Amino acid sequence: MAKPYPVDKKTGKMKNNIGWHVLHVKFNNEKRAHNDLKRLGIESFLPMGLTIRQWSDRKKKIYTPLFPSYVFVNIKSKLDFHTALSVDSVRSYIRFGDEYGKVSEKEIKQMKILTEDKEITEVETNVKLPKIGDKLKIEKGKLSGVECEVYRVNENHKINVWINSLHQNISATVPLHYFQGSGTSLMQH
User: Are residues 79 and 145 in the same domain?
Assistant: First the structure.
């Protein structure tokens, strides 16, 4: 069952979640979810990239989703928020802790340019993780503002960091999205 529209814990009022969000959809159901959302009057975007598939007897160029199992939706009201969840192939909104994953209009426009221009080819996606030894500043959560050094990165986008405090090292596993936000998180020393 869908979770209720998020409420600000301090004010008790519904949070403003107008804008572009990321929906997690069933495996290989991206096109279906995209079309169903459009049919319901919800603006959606499914970035596709041209890839070459190799079979034993031939090669074929096909369009595949750049972000498997994700569809972007432009939520304009609380009704849109809930209606999007009613689509059969939609599982949930992507969340980072208590926050729904939002994408800026600028980022959507950039993705549209990359995927709609036929002269731009071989568009790929990947997650840029920090490297061991990088000096970072945590930008979210209760540790916001704390400087640290990366000593391990795993495949689940968890970063193990050293935090120097009281002349002792404190080790913590911090999610990648805690380092991304306004401004740069990479410290220059």
Answer: no
Helix (H) / strand (E) element for 4: namely none
pLDDT tens, residue by residue, 63-120: 888 888 999 999 999 999 999 999 999 999 998 777 888 889 999 998 888 787 776 6
Mapped onto helix, strand or coil, the DSSP state of residue 8 is coil
Note the pTM of the prediction, 2 decimals. 0.62
In a domain, 147, yes or no: yes
Domain with 92 in it:
19-116
**CA distances from residue 19 to 44, 81, 155, 182, 184 in whole angstroms, order as listed:** 11, 10, 29, 18, 23
Residue with the two structure tokens 């949930």: 92
Q: Is 174 helix (H, G, I), strand (E, B) or coil?
A: strand
Task: Give one DSSP letter per residue of 52-82, joined into a string.
Answer: EEE-SS-EEEEEEESSTTEEEEEE-SHHHHH
